Amino acid sequence: MIDLGFFRKVAVVEGLTTLALFFVAMPMKYLAGDPRLVPPVGMIHGVAFLVYLAVMVAAFWGRGFTATTWIRTTAASFFPFGTFLNDGYLKSLEKNTATEQLRS
User: Fold this and answer.
1) Terminus-to-terminus CA distance in the chain, angstroms?
2) Phi and psi angles of residue 61, each rounded to the nearest 5 degrees, phi first
3) Are the C-beta atoms of residues 41 and 20 closer than 8 Å to each other?
4) Roughly what angle, to the nearest 10 degrees, separates helices 4-20 and 82-103?
5) CB 3.0 to 4.6 Å from 14: which of 19, 48, 64, 65, for a disulfide?
6) Is-contact 57 74, C-beta < 8 A?
7) How far apart are CA 12 and CA 7, in angstroms?
8) What is the pLDDT of residues 47-80, one digit of tens each?
């Protein structure tokens, strides 16, 4: 089982690649007419997105998280700033999970 703290770090990387794509590469293409950054940044973002999903499944599976948690965390990856806004929620899940493990 993957630690939620590791997943939070992966989420930050995914969020940063989203911002790089939306606020650096795409403006360079559409405002400056220079599309050179879109393929490499897009590829890096695509890999980060797939890693995010894989690590999310590995971190959440078997922990009894609700469908709302799964949907919310998946949806966060589709919006700029979404993974950053969801981080507080993940941090509270991490804290609650650690507390429950100490009790058992």
Assistant:
1) 17
2) -60, 130
3) yes
4) 180
5) 48
6) no
7) 9
8) 999 999 999 999 999 999 999 999 999 999 999 8
The SS3 assignment for 90 reads helix
- Ramachandran region, residue 33 (left: φ > 0; alpha: ψ -120 to 50; beta: rest): left
Q: Which own/partner contact pairs does 39-47 have at CB distance under 8 Å and 24+ positions apart?
A: 41/17, 44/17, 44/20, 45/14, 45/17, 45/18, 45/20, 45/21
Express each pLDDT in 37-51 by its tens digit.
Answer: 999 999 999 999 999
pTM of the shown model: 0.91
| Assigned token pair, 49 | 């997105």
